[in-house]
Write a structure and sequence with these properties.
The chain is mainly alpha-helical. Helix content is 69%, strand content 0%.
């Protein structure tokens, strides 16, 4: 998880981490997350499923993701543009509202 150099993979990991903060992720939330990935990253459903699945895998043993955010972003932070950062913040906010 701390070796992710692709900004899209790092962003996906953080989005899924936010969704997991609410506990188990519902089927509806998964669908929304996949759609978010497709729209914001400009990818197809298959790739969005791969991103979601790898994020779940990376997070399976993590107990304190908020404390790990700097380490997660460090390898990819130079490839984040202002637009990428803005989209990530929007996706994180949308994800936080999914289970409310």
């Amino acid at each position: 998880m701390h070796g992710i150099t692709d900004s899209m993979e790092a962003a996906a990991l953080l989005v899924v981490a936010v969704a997991k903060e609410h506990g188990d992720i519902t089927r509806d939330s998964i669908s929304e997350i996949l759609s978010m990935f497709e729209h914001n990253f400009g990818i197809k459903r298959r790739r969005s499923i791969e991103l979601y699945s790898s994020s779940i895998y990376y997070l399976k043993d993590s107990n304190n993701v908020p404390a790990e955010v700097p380490s997660i972003l460090k390898p990819s932070k130079d490839s984040f543009s202002i637009d990428h950062s803005t989209k990530l913040i929007q996706m994180l906010n949308s994800t936080a509202l999914l289970e409310d």
